[in-house]
Amino acid sequence: MMDRYKIPRTKELEFGGPLGAMILLFLMPTTVFYLLLTCRTEQASVLNFPPPLPPLSTLWSPHTFLLLLAWVGLQAALYMLPMGKVTEGIVLRDKSRLQYRINAFHAMGVTALVVGAGLAAGLRLSYIYDHFLQLAFSALLLAFGLSFLLYFKSLFAPETTLAPGGNSGNPIYDFFMGHELNPRIGSFDLKYFCELRPGLLGWALVNMAMLMKETELRGSPSLAMLLVNAFQLLYVVDALWNEEAILTTMDIVHDGFGFMLAFGDLAWVPFTYSLQAYFLVNHPQKLSLPMAVGILLLNGLGYCIFRSANSQKNTFRRNPNDPRVTGLKTIPTATGRRLLVSGWWGFVRHPNYLGDLIMALAWSLPCGLTHVLPYFYVFYFTVLLIHREARDEHQCLRKYGLAWQEYCRRVPYRIFPYLY
């Protein structure tokens, strides 16, 4: 009976298959350290070779590794507390539905209290800046260690629980993509926990540490640093407030939990998304008030598009008869579901990505226009979202068939209106 629920072998491999996965296993950590090392130089130029990587004996610090484990342990403890509601995920291939506790916003509040108490007791948050490379190296080790444990665990998992995109039979590819879809230890969902908790909150904490370091060096934080912190904190708070929405994302529904997501959650997000704040510590920028207001308005535009589009989609998914979406035009599909074809989703096919990219630009503009490095996030995120959009399009065409083709005909632009 259970044979029909088995996950078939992955035939359509991404990232160039096993060879591409092997290259990315090396390239992703290398990129993190290239960016951080370059950011510490006086020129901060991507055209120059970065200084050599410090000896491993200086990168490895038991103290920073224990601090990182303590941070992850704190978030894990908060995740397990009986705060917030419990909701169900989507129906899985074997017709079951997993339960998830929605309490990330509560965890953020408790974390803020803990950090605030530490600062009142004399905690030097700028320690994060002073030991940034060691912390990044510790996060790399943690991500690799977790990935090996996840892959080993997946070898003993029932075939019905494997990931559709990480069941190729090639160990390197499946290690990278994630072999098991929703690895759990009891009720503790490892992927769901890592998706929002240690890395995303860690990103906000790193930004605050950079602000504190700049204050130590110059007496007060710059307007540019305040804008970067405020913009990115808003993004983190929004993600945690709307935690339930990630249950329908491709990361949760389709992708297994392997090195790609583990490294992304634990190392890539906190150590590359904070690059603008890290840059500003060593390369201060003066912003005029009109420029700051313009950047503020640009971020506001991006956030409004991002939040409005996502809210419209999530409301329609939960209840198509909700008064807020009943007037929107739709296309029926063979699955019984309907596709939105008006509102934001009639403007472009991925309006949330458009808002995301506008915000990405606003986060980098406080760093000035003389360096390319702080704009890495804009370039990287553009590539990421175009790749993700292509994956979405492929999945939707497979799922909705002719209805999706009709939707594409009626909404021809994917992300950028009149451009792409």
UniProtKB/TrEMBL annotation:
Q: Please classify the protein's predominant subcellular localization into one broad category.
A: membrane
Q: How does it sit in the membrane?
A: Multi-pass membrane protein
Q: Name one Pfam family in it.
A: ERG4_ERG24
Under catalytic activity, the entry for this protein gives: 4,4-dimethyl-5alpha-cholesta-8,24-dien-3beta-ol + NADP(+) = 4,4-dimethyl-5alpha-cholesta-8,14,24-trien-3beta-ol + NADPH + H(+); 4,4-dimethyl-8,14-cholestadien-3beta-ol + NADPH + H(+) = 4,4-dimethyl-5alpha-cholest-8-en-3beta-ol + NADP(+); 5alpha-cholest-8,14-dien-3beta-ol + NADPH + H(+) = 5alpha-cholest-8-en-3beta-ol + NADP(+)
Q: Where do the TM regions start and end?
A: 21-39, 59-81, 102-125, 131-152, 217-237, 257-275, 287-309, 357-386
Q: Name one GO cellular component term.
A: receptor complex
Its keywords, alphabetically, are: Cholesterol biosynthesis, Cholesterol metabolism, Endoplasmic reticulum, Lipid biosynthesis, Lipid metabolism, Membrane, Oxidoreductase, Steroid biosynthesis, Steroid metabolism, Sterol biosynthesis, Sterol metabolism, Transmembrane, Transmembrane helix
Purpose: Catalyzes the reduction of the C14-unsaturated bond of lanosterol, as part of the metabolic pathway leading to cholesterol biosynthesis.
Membership in a protein family: Belongs to the ERG4/ERG24 family.
Q: Does the keyword Kinase apply?
A: no
Instruction: State what protein this is by name.
Output: Delta(14)-sterol reductase TM7SF2
Q: Does the keyword tRNA processing apply?
A: no
- Indicate the enzyme's highest-level EC class: oxidoreductase
Annotated EC:
1.3.1.70
Q: Which pathway is it part of?
A: Steroid biosynthesis; cholesterol biosynthesis
